[in-house]
Amino acid sequence: MKRSVSVFAILLFLFSSSLFAQTKNAMFPEMPGMVSYTYRNSLSKDLPATLDTLQAMGITDMEFSSLFGHSTTDIKMELDKRGMHCSSFGVGYKDLMEKTATVGENAKALGAEYVRVAWVPHTGAFTLEAAQQTIADFNAVGKVLKEDYGLTFCYHNHGYEFEPHGDGTLFDLIVQETNPAYVSFEMDILWTFFPGADPAALLTKYGDRFKLMHVKDLRKGIVGNMSGGTPTENDVTLGTGQLDLPAILRAAKKAGVKHFYIEDESPIYYQQVPKSIAYLQNLKK
C-alpha cells in the first residue's frame, strides 16, 4: 500500500476522530463517509490493507462503486472485521437496467440501503428525449429495487442534466417527474456547481429528495460547462476551491441528507483527504 498510510496520518485521524465527537457546535460531529472511487487504485490492488488505512482514519461509512474483483460476501466480511459498513452501492446504467436483480442482491449482501447510478449514457448534449427516457427508466427500476429488495434508488447528477428546459433545467424535469416513492438523489456538489447551478438553492428547493451527497471542491479559476467532465487534477482539498461549502452543507443538513461521502479523484488524494476531513471537522453549525 505505497503512500496509502503513514504514522503521521494515523495519528492525525485518531486525533481528528476524537475531535469530531467532542465538538459540540461542529456541523459534522460524526466522521463523514468515503467513496470507494477515491481509493480505487489501492482497493484494486489490496482491499484489506486499504480498508485498514481507512479504518485508521476513522472512516466507517463507505459507498462502494465497484466490487474490485471480490465477492460481496468477502467485502462485507472485511468491513465487519473493522466495524465499517457499506451504506450505498454504485452501479452502471446498463447493469441497473439489465441486471436489476443482481444489483439488488449485491446491494443487500453488502448491507447497503441505497443503490445509485452516476451516469446516463448519451452522445453530445443531453436532450429532452434522453431525459424523458431516463425518467421512465428510473421510475421502473426504482420501483423494483424498493418493492423487491427494500432499497432506495438514487441518481447522482453529473452536470450534463442542467441543460435549460422551460423555466428550469432538464435536471428539474427529472426530479419533478420521477416518483418520490421510488427515486431519490445523490447530489455531487462539484457536478452541480460546474454547469452553473447553485447546490444550496437546489437543496432548499427539493429538500429530502436528496438522500446522499458527494462532498468535493473545484480548483479556483476553472470555468465549468455541461460536459460532465474535467481533469481529475481540478479536484482540490475541501475549502480551497470555488464552492461555498458552509452554505451548501448547511442547506444539506436542513434538507435531511442522510450520508455525506468525501470523493477526491485527484492524483494526490492521499495528501488532500486528511486536510479535507480536518476542514469538515472545523465547520460550525
Automatic annotation (TrEMBL):
Cell inner membrane as a keyword? no
For this UniProt entry, which residues form the secretion signal?
A: 1-21
> What range(s) does the Xylose isomerase-like TIM barrel domain occupy?
56-265
- Organism of origin is Algoriphagus aquimarinus
GO molecular function list: isomerase activity
Domain of life, per lineage: Bacteria
| Pfam families linked | AP_endonuc_2 (PF01261)
Residue spans making up a coiled coil are: none
Q: Which Gene3D superfamilies match?
A: Divalent-metal-dependent TIM barrel enzymes
Signal in keyword set: yes
The name of this protein is Sugar phosphate isomerase/epimerase
Write out the entry's keywords from A to Z: Isomerase, Signal
Enumerate the SUPFAM superfamilies for this protein. Xylose isomerase-like
